[in-house]
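Batch 3, record 17
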Amino acid sequence: MKKLSKHSIKGFINYGLVIVLYIIFQILASAKVLTNSLQGLLVPICAYVVMALALNLVVGFSGELSLGHAGFMSVGAFTGVIIASSLKNLVPFGPARLILAIAGGAVLAAIAGVLIGVPVLRLRGDYLAIVTLAFGEIIKNIMNCMYIGVDSRGLHFSITDEASMGLEPGGTTIINGPMGALGITKISSFLAGIILIVITLFIIQNLVNSRAGRAIAGIRDNRIAAEACGIPVTKYKMMAFVTSSALAGAAGALYALNYSTVVPKKFDFNTSILILVFVVLGGIGNLTGSIIAAIILTVLPEVLRQFQDYRMLVYAIVLILVMIITNNEKASAFIKGLFSKKAKKEAA
Amino acid sequence: MTEIKAKKKQEVKLVSVPSPYIVPERNAGEPLVLEATHLGIDFGGLTAVDDFNLGMSKNEITGLIGPNGAGKTTVFNLLTKVYQQTRGTIFLGGKDTIGMSTTQMNRAGIARTFQNIRLFDSLSVEDNVKIGLHNSIDYGMWQGVFRTPAYRKQEKQAHEKAMELLSIFDMQDEANVPAGSLPYGAQRRLEIVRALATEPKVLLLDEPAAGMNPSETSELMDTISKIRDDFGIAILLIEHDMNLVMGICEGIVVLNFGRIIAKGTPSEIQNNPVVVEAYLGKNKENKEEKNPGKKGGKNR
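Prediction for the assembled complex:
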């Protein structure tokens, strides 16, 4: 029998983890153990996991820093909402509309990724961080003054106010400036989220372990050596960045279609940093870590709600502890030692 | 206008350099794989390399030597376009390389190793070689994501090729070790393997024997000769170990202060007073001389 490579074992662990988590959450939900607010978090958790995985492709594998991934999420979210709302009559079947919305969100976010990547990824250094930071804010502000509506004649746009769109009497406003998208039909589901996570894992893991993935990792490790090996640096940086922004767009569409209203302010700098925190705490370049970190750090504030006053304090302490444990050799060796002692005791 | 000026300048310089080529006996008459003429680069006001001329045909091993700071590595960086030259031309396989990037130079057939080792430290030894094989694999991104038959077939071939190349230095057993954790000498050897994987016509080795003991060095000498014979490529190497340089190079170029001060066979170079002077310094009474390259010989 052919021996499985280290990569494929790691890959199967991640798929397994996601499926096990799905089953656990399903059991918890059907046993009514989950509170209402936690149940409402299931889809956002999935969206954040996809975001963390997508950002890890840029930060962990490509070695670039993006501080505006919420911007791509925003592009995907509002594209998804527009598609889902305008196709309401054309495609009445919810899941099909969700697939179209997610695909559309991914495509538009990918286009945004190309527009940013083409000029910026040619440069060396931290320019990507600066430009993506600005991009996130720009998208937020554009969406803040966008009015989009739909009627029988098609889509209408305006950047001044709702009235100037000139909608027919029967038309509906999809995006209402700073009020965001209103009256969204919730078509996202936990299952759809899990499927999106699996697809994301499939794309990232297989990409990383292919010719392109080696090139991307090579550029991260040593750009000059990669060039000397005949690798077109900009092309592969673009590949990682655009793939990542497309996945972020898909996550955004999934996220937005879980709520009845979504405001542009949701996808601001704080969200970008939150996702970066998932990636850093889970371990840069570590997909399993990203998944776990995204879940824990999304659930934690909800669980700590009963300690209202101390919530952010505890959250901060947990963040610091995790950071120390994951980034300190002695601490991680200590933790490993604990586990191996346990394992030994169990064996004995 | 500027073109004409540049041409005039070159004509004048041609006189001071009668032959731009090293002509080792064994390959006289072969077409040149690498031809650099009047190559030069300025960093601000500082001329790091000037009027560098070199021709190499396949199956040649040429040594590039000179005291520290002579500009040897700068020449490598010029030949691989890490730096764009200020003056002069580089022809690779008969084609002008003007405007090419480092990546394009590698594809055109020039590969190198680095003085301060540049491996992909976090990747395995095998993956390092596979990155070298990057351009001989041609499945696309989505074929990789969906693991198509083309992906499987080409990855299998790449694996076999990588193992074959690693066997040059008997490194197959270390294929799965992260490159960064290899011992120093093995890292140098892996750099050579990775460079060979890009199927070069010209291989540039920057101090391949640095940090190796005498027995490792003599082993490396055999391997370099073997690589030349097996792959039929031209090898240009920078090295401070004179046993290695004199032992395997057919032609030697000596560089000092960014200029070629001597060219010739190992025995010619060993007996060249200008070279001796560049390495050991000149006599006190010759101090006022401005151009040791021309007059140094007479005073000895």
